[in-house]
Amino acid sequence: MAATDPIIEMRNAKVTYDDGETFVLDDVSLAVERGEVVGVVGESGSGKSMLASAMLDAIPDPGLLSGEILYHKDDGTTVDVLELSQEELRQFRWEEIAMVFQGAMSSFNPTMKIGGHFKETLKAHDAHVTEGMAFARELLSDLYLDPERVLDSYPHELSGGMQQRALIALSLVLEPNVLVMDEPTAALDLLMQRSILMLLQELQEKYDLTMVFITHDLPLVAALADRMAVMYAFDLIEVASQDQLISNSGHPYTRALLNSTPNLDAPLEEMRAIEGQSPAPINVPSGCSYAPRCPLATDKCRSEDPPFYDTGEGHLASCHHWQQARDEITLNFDAGDTGPVDESAANTVDEPVDPETVDNTEDEP
Amino acid sequence: MSKSEITETNRRNEGDAPLISLDNVEVHFEKDQGLLDFFEEPETVNAVDGISLDIEENDVLALVGESGCGKSTLGKTTIGLQRPTGGTVRYRGQDIWAAKDGRGEVDIPFSEIRSSLQIIHQDPGSSLNPNQKIVDILATPIKQTHPNIGVNERRERIYSLLERVGMNPAADFADRYPHQLSGGEQQRVALSRALLMNPDLILADEAISALDVSLRVEMMDLMLDLQEDFDTSFVFISHDLSNARYFAEHGDGRIGVMYLGELVEVGPAEQLIEEPGHPYTNVLRWATPDLSLHAADASKPPMRKIDIPDPVNPPSGCRFHTRCPEAREACRESCPALTGDDAHRTACFRSQPDHEYWESLELVD
What we know:
The complex is a heterodimer.
Chain A: E1 6-17, E2 22-33, E3 37-41, H1 48-55, E4 64-72, E5 78-80, H2 86-95, E6 97-100, H3 104-107, H4 114-124, H5 129-142, H6 147-151, H7 160-172, E7 178-182, H8 190-207, E8 210-215, H9 218-222, E9 227-232, E10 235-241, H10 242-248, H11 252-259, H12 299-303, E11 309-310, E12 316-317, H13 322-328, H14 341-353, H15 356-359
Parallel strand pairs in A: 3-8, 3-9, 6-7, 7-8
Antiparallel strand pairs in A: 1-2, 1-4, 4-5, 9-10, 10-12, 11-12
Helix pairs in contact in A: 4-5
Chain B: H1 3-13, E1 20-30, E2 44-55, E3 60-64, H2 71-78, E4 86-91, E5 94-95, H3 96-101, H4 110-116, E6 117-120, H5 124-127, H6 134-145, H7 151-164, H8 170-174, H9 183-195, E7 201-205, H10 213-230, E8 233-238, H11 241-250, E9 254-259, E10 262-268, H12 269-274, H13 279-287, H14 293-296, H15 329-333, E11 339-340, E12 345-346
Parallel strand pairs in B: 3-8, 3-9, 6-7, 7-8
Antiparallel strand pairs in B: 1-2, 1-4, 4-5, 9-10, 10-12, 11-12
Helix pairs in contact in B: 6-7, 6-9, 9-10, 10-11
């Protein structure tokens, strides 16, 4: 599946602190297609928030962002995000790409009514206030909120779930093409999280949005995402369609992550935690960063950083032993019927593409 | 019955009295008032209403429900941290609050009850004193339970417990301050501190919710292992049904579902999840992320409204009738009691085949 119409292309994005001593984003490339929902999954400290900030060139000081971030506008022109001036960047954020953070309470000004936030945003971007407020009301009702009541409330007068939905409405009021969300539901209870996900899906269809949803909660985002990307130790380690990633993942970490997730159907005795800890930004091991925790690790893994192997149909996994991982690390849940496509595709398409896989077994100790 | 008769029956029952017995417990809070509403009736929040429940030795009870359903208040009432505004809470037959006030004949002093019932909080970082080393934090409970133990033996006990909870090398961890530990390690220290009091019951109030998904199973396993070693019961509070299931099923316990202060269903974990009796349990099931691909798409929730009603003015009749997809006139008029066999009870008219509910009209919004 070749990239057809990407809206954001991130190429070799790198974020460093301390004069290049500390990497918090290590050479990440990711293309987001127009109109798709990408779920980015990673543990705390894996660099997933940095990925979101990098898309808007909003890395907290004194971090340094290098690489290339291209944004393809609807009219066919391309913007190099890292070349924008401060003023252009201010316009670009919110009007083209909007961002929602976790904890709505800290995004709102506690002394200003919700309606005031909408008006201020519209004015700051020279938008038509009356028309904009009409759209704001529509967005709020799309999110199952009572527009008049919410606009006339102070943030603390709303429940956490209502605040977070009001914040999503606010982020969409300037009709951006892309919505980047960093743990937008983290502080809420599960029922509200799922409800918000359902609403996001409706918004995505109604307004043709492209969404990047960043979270540590893999099963949560699986309900929404078309494509998923898994981060480990400041780099993406697997990118695949939602059903491929869940039923046929090729990276041992992804498989361990899936197996460690409590869910209602997995047999209890097979659920288990991942051994060990993910590395700190200063001590990323050479070779594959997951090798110290990986049951399949060989000498090759410890010395040679695995590139992205194409395991078929655009399913990328950065593991030297992706085939072995599929065979030997069994998944403890029933992913459901995904059709016969994946297995055959995986075995016929990739081997010619990827000569590396032939060596797999020779590295066994 | 006079007071002396009551204590008499308690004495007789002491051998087989449940560890904790809640009888028709209610907790109502008065809302804080501003200066200007001084003359108005204070608003009350019915956090917990009419709950009766027994907890046995080595028992596991998982309480689930959305934010604001009263599960934490019920948990705190169970361990004697919150005084109920109605009903009684007994510890081995002794009314906890009668012991506290010195009413009647007190068989078990309040201090003994208090130290037998422990709590682990959601945020371990703020429940540990930041100015004390781990060794000092853990020495406090030992000094209280075993005042005659010398410094060296105390240290030995702390080290062996730290090793038991997976913090190796113990000597290294013991000399650290709480901020030098990760969230998971802090929670292990909080758990160790609770265990050093030799408790009969530990309340784990969202104790794993702040941890990464991948660490939750590990923490639950640890708690369950220690339950066997230390012979404690657990009340495990979570908004996540899959965690509640994991914990309750492994500990061979029950799940209790709360809605707006009331217990709407209680039963053995697997049975409650496989055959939910209450429509609200079904909603929680829907909200639980599932890795099977059939269920993965964000479908409509099986309820009519997303937001929970205001607990100051809870709906009449069955409190869930304003959101319930199955609600009929009868649900607005009268409140269903918990019915069913001893193990699995449900508060819904639908579990009673000959109830007038089936004849009444459906509610529409």
